[in-house]
Amino acid sequence: MALNINGLHHVTSIASDAQENSDFFTKSLGLRRVKKTVNFDSPDTYHLYYGDEAGSPGSVMTYFPFRNAGRGRPGVGEVSETQFSIPKGTVGYWSERLGNRGVSGLKETEVFGEKHLRFKGPDGDGFSLVEVADDTRAGWTGAGVSDAEAVRGFRGATLRLRDGAATGELLTFMGYQKVDTQGNVTRYGVNDGNGADFVDVETLHGASFAQQGAGSVHHIAFSVKDRAVQLEVRKALMDTGYQVTPVIDRDYFWAIYFRTPGGVLFEVATDEPGFDRDESPAKLGTALKLPKQHERMRKQIEAYLDPIKD
């Protein structure tokens, strides 16, 4: 049976500097910072979330900015590129905007019939802006970006693997269907998703494995409606032989994690309760929010973290 996956939920990566990371996503890409909190397991490190106005599932890029983290080494066994949706005809606007801000690696290309603008993040992260004609999601109009050009959320992501067959079978089990193959890249898509509908699998036989660091994706998360569906997904994965974590409360969603055959860490996250559970919609991402187990250390945490200027 196909699992009730709605597309991507979020993508979480590693950075080396919190201020640089925040400036890039809010001032260059024009996204909204929807949450400023800390890493559950390392509360001396921020966990920053960027997305649309509400931080809707399928729009949120999140980061652990470990201070002075060394650069990751690209390779197989990782998410190599995160793709954002932009309106049709806006690649030129974004090429000029990002170029004026010193963004590196800018390159226009076409993949699966869609126009892409590829570029690198501050730590060498792989990104692509993809022109999409029928994306009805509302963009966040921050940092001087109008609604006519604003990022709509994710389009999808690319996994770079030595062998994509087993991961392709997993994606099919999760409800994705094979859409097309172009060279060594196969696209999988989910029907009636949240807009972040595609996972591309690039196969590079014999390539070296990636080494995680700044600029690397830590994990990629898939969206499910609620905890009941999440438990169904967890059982189905475990019945198939995957080692899946218990459900973990991440304050703004519940999460389960498992490692894929290609080495990529997958998460399945609920769309509930959302980022406004502890901040009003108008104030999202402004105050430092701490997981309840770390609240008693607020003074020490605030003293250690570098302030982020908006």
Automatic annotation (TrEMBL):
Residues 7-132, 153-271 form the VOC domain. SUPFAM superfamilies: Glyoxalase/Bleomycin resistance protein/Dihydroxybiphenyl dioxygenase. The keyword Oxidoreductase applies. Keywords: Dioxygenase, Oxidoreductase. The keyword Oxidoreductase applies. It comes from the Bacteria. GO terms for molecular function: dioxygenase activity. It holds the Pfam family Glyoxalase. This is Ring-cleaving dioxygenase. It comes from Pseudooceanicola spongiae.
